[in-house]
Queue: 2 jobs
Job 1
Amino acid sequence: MDKTDRSTGLRTQIISHVVGRIMSGEWKPGDRIPSEGALTEMFGVSRMTAHHALRELAGRGFVVRRSGSGTYVAEPSAYVSEYRHLDVLEEIATRGGHHRAEVIHREMRSATPEEARAFEIDANGSLFHALVLHLEDEVPLELEDRLIAPRFLPDAMEIDLTCQTLFSRLMLVRPHREGSEVLRAVSGSPSETKLLRVDTGTPVLEVVRRTWSTEGIVTIARILRAGTAAQLVGRIKTVSGQ
Amino acid sequence: MDKTDRSTGLRTQIISHVVGRIMSGEWKPGDRIPSEGALTEMFGVSRMTAHHALRELAGRGFVVRRSGSGTYVAEPSAYVSEYRHLDVLEEIATRGGHHRAEVIHREMRSATPEEARAFEIDANGSLFHALVLHLEDEVPLELEDRLIAPRFLPDAMEIDLTCQTLFSRLMLVRPHREGSEVLRAVSGSPSETKLLRVDTGTPVLEVVRRTWSTEGIVTIARILRAGTAAQLVGRIKTVSGQ
DNA sequence: TAGTGGTCTAGACCACGAC
DNA sequence: TCGTGGTCTAGACCACTAT
């Protein structure tokens, strides 16, 4: 056997077998599936191989393992939608378009009490604030209203924002791997809809993201998209109901 | 050592060590990290333990492993937002609210040519169509406009929709684990905004989901939410740039 | 050629759950 | 008590990569 061919490996055979039974409906949610010992005999493999196959399936959300009891098909009572966001520059590049950024505002200023709380800094501590309009082939795509804790990007005021985004710059100096996001449909303010070149009252997709590193909140971004750009495409995965 | 305490297991120690270095920025994207052999010596563990720790980290997107070369910190050039959707009934239950459903339409009818293509069925094949308004404490929360391929839910016309959702019913008989989703901010039609009890022109969050099982498309749902309900909360994960 | 990750084994001990 | 999953080991062979 080719030891590196993932499609014929013993572990993969077990995984395919289990996934097939679950997807076809033969093994239904809540059903107990063969134990490690049973799979060991069925497939003629060692217990470790069966164990790691089931462990991987648990990680992928197909099964739930209960020590001392058994392995069960996960209850699909919930599902998650995954939206993969690229940096605006990359998003436009993948469509073959041309990107241009208009810097509407860029300032270092004192935090409002509310912002100070959000960033967990002293009242009146300084924050970097930028309002940037991203255009694809000269059509407004996205309005980016971003606050950044200056300690993470000390040279924020000097960065050339026409050829790189604040997002990518932040990722370079401080990869932040956790965050929360709130998504809403709103009516943009007159100044915002004017920048996005849509009629007042046009529905706008608003995304507020806050991302943090181990040392605290890095940035809070409010992203607005309107018109045909106000569309996100994602994929759905069913997950365990726990 | 307690063999089942996941927080002190050897594998977990290695994972924590690596994640810590990456999160703190000490190991930057693209950096090569210690090999299985090196970790084996550093932690005094067997190679298999180091291997499975790194394998799990690769599965979680923290590192990229290249056979023959080494293990590298993943490039965080993209990130995904995860929105966890519950069944409307469960969502309301978690908030302690009371659910009521109003069935606006329910019919078995011929598919339009467009729908027939989407469902990959014969032209004029039959489809089940339902328009259901879900209310939380008598306040409209969500308008559900759903098409279902009848073969997956033959008793669709007889189901009591006041105490269960079509979603949960479908999940019971045919757990579908894959789907796509398009999310937009739109102006609802007059009839839709009237049902949702918001002013005409109010921004509405529209989600169109199509989900499929191994035997084809199961259902296409168009979900509308307006006002304060038009808000989704998700979490962000940075993923490898590949 | 040496080092890397990919795969698999046979055996061990442990904690937990069901009976 | 017995079967379950959780953890770990020591060793093996393989394919690929860098040099």
Job 2
Amino acid sequence: MPEGHTLHRLAKLHRRLFVGAPVEVSSPQGRFASSASLVDGRVLKRAEAHGKHLFHVYGPDATVHVHLGLYGTFDEHLLPAAVPVGQVRMRLAGRTHWADLRGPTVCELLTSAEVAAVRSRLGPDPLRRDADPDVSFTRISASRTSIAVLLLDQKVLAGVGNVYRAEVLFRHGVHPLTPGLKIDQGLWDLMWADLVVLMRYGVKVGRIDTVRPEHLPEATGRAPRQDRHGGEVYVYRRTGMPCLVCGTPIAMSDLAGRNLYWCPTCQPE
DNA sequence: GATCTATGTAGAT
DNA sequence: TCTACCTAGATCG
């Protein structure tokens, strides 16, 4: 379930469970074994997220960089640790809890300079206090590329994935193929502020809910709950189902290899 | 049990 | 624009 909120939630959880104490780090699967041995037993200093990237900082020259990709997962449990099941890339064991990482796109040990290089390729993250939405707007307003593609470009802004993209475009009545340069500053400021609210909520509850109460199926009697991703949304994966606002069937198409969902009536061209 | 699909990205073409 | 990566839940039969 990895959009930015998932990684920030993990960072928060790992701060609580592991930061400030020595951590046993291993790689039952073996693919991370040599790096794990370099941080095994050291005190975890910080855990933080930038966009969809997670960083476990052990020292100035030892940070574990994790990207979950499409199917990576972390799971955390109370000690004692169980025998590893399946392909566990990295296992952490602290004073009270242990955690397993499976299926990440990236799990690597970096120096602080390498971390800086990774982060320099990321745009502002709506979930970080240091984020400047104008940096995103500068790129968006200079681009003929569609806003739907720009929202997934992690250099433009970091942390938004396919669900938040679809939902924020719906909530602002923006057609996905609108060129970036047609998005004015006022609209972008509203979309950014909305992402901050939606994604902070996602960090808090651990799932993506974007539907206003008055639009919920219970209130409208219009459509059954759509729960495939664990939350309540307007358009994501609701192809052919009636729009919660106007009843028009939700549309889907492929855009740059990703599924795109929108309401043809609420988001006119 | 087999098959399909996906909230992502890098690298090849 | 295409493919590989590599996991789990949903769906099919």
